Structure formats: C-alpha cells, structure tokens
Amino acid sequence: MTVNEKAKAKTEQVTGAAKETAGRAVGNERLTIDGRAERKKGDAREAMEKIKDVGKH
Fold first, then answer.
1. Which of 14, 31, 47, 53 has CA atoms 20 to 30 A from the CA of 38?
2. Residue 2, φ and ψ in degrees, nearest 5
3. Using one digit for the tens of pLDDT, what is the confidence trace for 40-54?
4. Which residue from 15, 17, 6 is spatially nearest to 47, judged by alpha carbons?
C-alpha cells in the first residue's frame, strides 16, 4: 500500500465518520448519508490497496 493511498483512505474514513456523526447529531439526513458514503469510499480504497499488496508478495 502506498503511503499516499493509505493516507487518502484514512482521511476519507475519518472525515466520513465525522460527517456521519455530525449529521446524526443535528438531524441532517443528507450530511449523514454523505458521510457514510465517504467513509465507505475510504474503506473500499483501503481494501483495494491491501489486495494490491497481497498480489505483490
């Protein structure tokens, strides 16, 4: 996993989780959905990079 891609994945996961939590706290369904989507995008990026790493070894 490249450091840059790993950092992007973690950033998306953390930012998404924060948006999701904030959306729930204020009752903003759109923010909650956007946060959940961003978090899942980070999860997918991280999984893809892990698969690439396994393929290299």
1. 53
2. -70, 150
3. 999 999 999 899 888
4. 6
